[in-house]
Structures are given as structure tokens and as C-alpha cells.
Amino acid sequence: MNTKALREAIDDFKLEYQNKVEEVSGRILAESSPLNQYDALADLIKDKITPAWAQKNVIYDEYKERQVYFFSIEFLIGKLLKSYINCLQLDPVVEAAIEELGLDYELILSQEADPGLGNGGLGRLMACFLESGATMDLPINGNGIRYKYGLFAQEIIHGEQVEVADYWLKNGYPFEFRKPDESVIVKYYGNIHAQRINGVLTFVHENYEPILAIPYDIPVKGYKNDTVNTLRLWSAEPLEGFDLPRFNQGQFLDAVRHKSEAEAISQILYPDDTGFDGKLLRLKQEYFFVCAGLKQIVNRYKRFNHNCMDEFAEKICIHINDTHPALCGPELMRILMDEEGLGWDDAFNITHHALSFTNHTVLPEALEKWPVDMLQKLLPRVYMIIEEINRRFIECLKNEHFMSDEEAWHLSIIRDNQIHMASLSIVCSHSVNGVAELHSQILREETFKGYYRVFPERFHSVTNGVTPRRFLINSNRGLNKLINEAIGLNWQLDLSDLEKLLDFKDDPLFIAKFQKIKTDNKARLAAYIQAHNGVTVNPDSIFDIQVKRIHEYKRQLLNILHVLHLYNQLKENPDLSIHPRTFIFAGKAAPGYYFAKEVIKLINAVAEKINHDPAIGDQLKVVFLANFNVTLGEIIYPAADISEQISTAGKEASGTGNMKFMMNGAITLGTMDGANIEIHQAVGADNIITFGLSSDQVSQFEKNGGYRSVDLYENDLRIQKIMHQLVDGSLGQQISFQSIYDSLLLYNDHYFVLKDFDAYIKAQEQVNTIYQDKKRWSQISIQNVARSGLFSSDRSISDYERYIW
Could you give the CA distance from residue 406 to residue 539 in angstroms, rounded to a whole number? Predict the structure, then answer.
């Protein structure tokens, strides 16, 4: 846009915006609040998106190409206003117009809440995939739940995690469109009556409890194009929300009881399932969005295909994202048979060819299982179908694969009085994939080896990816500008073009600019830390960052034990030569996960001790940032020097935080696990720091034994001191971490924290050595950015399109 055109665009936008402020708030601009200003800007930008959205829906309705629907319990989309503006290429216009009107652009943007629609990598991956699909002009949509209160908002009080409701909808949400005319009735409980109608055996669901599923659509805008796809989220409501006669009789709670029970289904993400009621609610949630989403897809397909289901699988792909939507298989069968009149064989053939499944974990406890009694009572017809799918599958194993009863039982969908949802997904889908090379190998050789023996052609591998638009272009504007100046703009749509940056890794001017950008980003994060934690950190220190869900296998514990060791070293030797370090943690622990919450408490106890020790000063700081979300991530990723990816080898499926850090020039410090292996292959051994047991070594220890953590404790004075500090009051009066102490010694260190401790210390010493040479460090950092093209979600979507769909 030339100068004259830009000037005209700014003036036009200022006029539009002032009119919009008056329209949405009833106030003139001078009297409007920041929330009024945000609502007006959101409404104005939405107006520029919806015409293309409507046109794209018309094109999709003709079904000229196969449509993909991601079914996922999470969609961690982040704030959308800034992203929409960037996709529309309106950044210079909007920013200049807002500034000329005398308004605070950042304050306006801050009025938007992070949508509480996900928790971690699973949900963020889905958001990246939807964005890439729209950017690549592919018909890829999402289907999930509209959580009223999200997961939870995390507060840290006296060093401990406290969960409070995340009421992200309190000011409304301008980017959702409620579609009550497309509502679906979801049926729970009741009984099934079989009868013959015109000679056909028909199943009728009677005496059920109906719940109304109301869709809310959010536009997914592509970058630099006219494509707008849809994220559809379902909200649960009662068919009749208020019992007026009961209310008038004084039975006030009874009058709204059914409303509350219905709405509970879409209130929060991942309700605590340690008890029966929590488990039941989770199962209700999983069926709720599967049933509603599939019925809507089938109804829409029929409307434009003359009610003929013959080409359904050729025109529709239902992609199951982890095991939460595993009921897609039997539910699609139910719709095809009970509502569309198809026979079993035709219904299963369509279902099998329409469904694909991505597994995201190898942890047994994360592979969902539901008690037979619970599912049979809640979803009687669905259970009947699962039972028949399983019966036919077992028969196939025995007759076609010549398995014994015992061999077939180990692959049965129903075993030990549990319904195994991963097994159900594998049997019903035409494709099963892992999300990194190692993860896919473990699925084939260990987790699902029996199924791989039967269905080798179904198993694939697609390494995860992240969108560079949000996590580089939008969140690291200094680096975005530097890259554009160096290699042009093509990389924004083809991230492999970043390899051209290798020509600049030895350029002193480029390196100086690169270093300045990193320092500015660190100063921005330091200001955030000061404002939210009251801790002053040195931007010239090494920012060593681990941000992810708190879990034992992710080993935040290993990280903080090393920090405590480093503190001990500094206390014993104040003249120790180390570059100042700032260790930054963030992430949430599941409300019922006691051990993970103890780790958060430990991190904060260590931070309290170190940050208030005047003898340490700026040499060492520790910070735990509360309530990690996408917006906070956009501040953290560009500021990192070190990306901590230290999971127990073989336990992390892929990881995507490692990719976001890498894309922004952080150097990975990690085990050879998940996508760290592909990062190692991409950047070379000299540009990543690895340590620790391999996945094979971990597997051998788990299968054959041979590891005793007590032996390490008895022979390592460093470990002895740290372990004593956990329980002797060193970290605060009346503060003891006995459960952590016991897990490491009494219960033999299940995730090999102490086994990898020495190797981790040596890796951290390597960080300290390399960082002394700032030029070399920057060259390694630049090479990480240059080699990050493989980890674009655009590449992931291309792989799905080529190998899966």
C-alpha cells in the first residue's frame, strides 16, 4: 500500500471506528470506556470477515472437495482480535488510526479475554491446525464444547496453586455467533425398544433425558486470503429451563435444578474425575459434542446431496483428536442405522472410511477407559453398538488372523469390565497416527503393537507443528521485521524459506540486530514479571524457561532440583563463575493431581528462598508465572534463551512448546524425546543440548528393573543435600516436601529424575559455557530459527492431507 492509499485507508477507518463506537455503546468516542472501544473495534473487524465467511460456506455446501472436521475436547484458540487484524493485513491502518484518535491500542487489545476452551498442547495444536487449514485454503473445521468457565484460572496463594472459575465470558464474546435454529437434541439414559417396521429391525430410544445442544460458531480466518472456516462449539441447555409452577409453590431450587444439571455439561473443561460424579460428567461431555456435531454434519450433508449417504465418506472426514471423541465411531453407526435406515455392513463401511484417529499419548493412565455399567446405563443404544463392533472384531481376529481366545481378548474393546476408547478408535478408523517419529514408533512397537500386527496399513506418523503467524509474526514483531528485511515475505506462507537465514548467521550487522531484538523481548518479559510477581530480574541474565502442564513425566521437578543445587553451589562458593540465570516456570496442575501441585509449591518455596537471599543478588532468580495461557505464551516464547524440554524419554508424544521456542530463537535443552528428536535432526548436534537416558534405556529399566534410586542417593553428596533440604525445614519453617522425597527414594523415582540428574547438571554447565561467547550463542540461535520450517503446522496439515485424509 503506497503512502497516499495508506493515508486514505487510515482516515476512512477512523471515521468507521468512531461511528461504530457510538453504535455499540451509545457514547461518543471521548466518553467511551476501553471496553466500549474494544467492542467497537471487534465489531468493525468482524464486519470485514463475515462476508467472506458467508461466501465460503456457500462454496463448501456444494462439497466440491472433502471436508475435514476435527473433533476435540479442547481448542485453545487464544485472543482473536489482533490475529484477525493481522490476517486482514490491516495492522498499519488500525494502529495508526487508533493512535491518531488518541487511544491506547494495547489497552484496547487487553480487554479481550483468553477464551477458556483448552488447557495445553492438545488444544493449542487444534487451534494451529484450524488456522493453517484456513491459510492453506482447505475446508477444515472444528467441533468442540463452549465451556462457560474454561479449565480454571490459576492463582498462587502462599506458594500454592488455587483454582478459581475462569469466567472468560463475563463481558460477552464478540466473535461467536449463536445458531439456535441448528440446535440438536442429545439423549441420555432411557431404554431401547426393538421392533420390526416394514420387515426391518428398528431400535427406538424411549424414556430418555433430553439435553439441548446449541451451536456457537467462531470464524477461523486464513492469512492473506479470503478463506474463513468455522469452529463450532456446543453449549448445553435444558429443553425447558424454568419450572414456573414449582417456583410459585416456593420450591425455588427445584424450579431450576434441571437447568443446572443440563448446563453442567458445558460449564468446565476436565471436571475432577476422581469420584463417580466427575467421571459421569466427563462421559456426558464426550458424548454431548460428538452426538451434536455428527448430527449436524449428517444433516448438512443430506441437504446438499439429495439425502443420499453413498458418498458420505468420500466427502466427509471425521478426525478424532485423542480418545475424548472416541464415541464418534458408534455414534455415527447409530445415526446411519437408526436414523438413516442403513444396514450394519453399509454403516460400518461408511464409518470406517470417514473416521481417522490421532493418538497423543503413550501414558496408560491417559488412554481413556469407561466402566461398562456407566456407559451402558447412560448411553444404552451406543453401548449396544460398541458391543456388536467388538463381537465382530473378535470374530475377525479369530477367523481371519487365527488368534487364540487369549490373544483376541488382549485386543478386545471391552475387557476387564472397561470400554477401552483407544481400542474403539483404532477398530473404527481407517487411519491411526502418532505425532512424532519416536511416538509413532512406540505406538507400533509397544502401546498398540497388537493392533499394528492386524492393521499395519492403518498406522502413520505426522509430526506436530505450530502456526508461525501467531507465534512469530504476531508475537515477535521485531524478529518478523528483521526476517522480512533479510529474505522477503514468502516465508510467512512457506516456513521452509527461513533456511535462507543461514546466509546471515555470520553477518555481524544481522547478529547485532538479532541480539537487540532478543534483549528487547527479554525486557518486555522482565517488565511483566515485575508487574505480576514483584520480582526484579536482569534482562542480561540467561532466561531459562519451562512452560507446560505440570506433570511428573514433564519433570519440572528435575529443573527445580537443579536450581536448588546451583543455589547450594553459589552459597558454598560465592566466586563461582556462572553467568546470571533467571529460571522461569509456568503451567497448571490438574485440580486433583496432588503431586503436581506439590511441585508448584516447591518451585515457589525455592523461589522465595533464593529471591530474598541478598548474598545471591542478581546471580540467580526463580519465578513462577501464574495462569499460563496463550497470551502469556506470546510474551514468553520470544524472550527465551533456553527452552527446557526435559521429559522422561519415551513419555512425551511430541510437544509443541519446543517448536514455538525454537521458532523464536531459543536453544533446546532436552532429552531425546518427542519432537526433540526431529529438532536434533533439523539443527544438528552442535545447535541443541541433549542429555539423559534414551527411550530404549528407560524401557529396559521399566521392563527388567536394575535401577535403584537409593544407590544414587548414597553415592552422590549433591543429591543427599538436596533431598535433606526437601524435608528439614531449609525451604521454610513447617514446610516439608515429604511426598516428593518419598517418590524419589521410597518409591524408586518412577520418572528417573535422580538417574538423569548428573547428566542434566553437565548439560546446564554446557549452557553456561556456550553463553559466554555471545556471538556463538547468537549463531546457534539464528540456526534454530532458520531450521524451524519443518515445525510449521502448515507442513503438518499438508502431511495429513497427503497421508491421512
Answer: 61
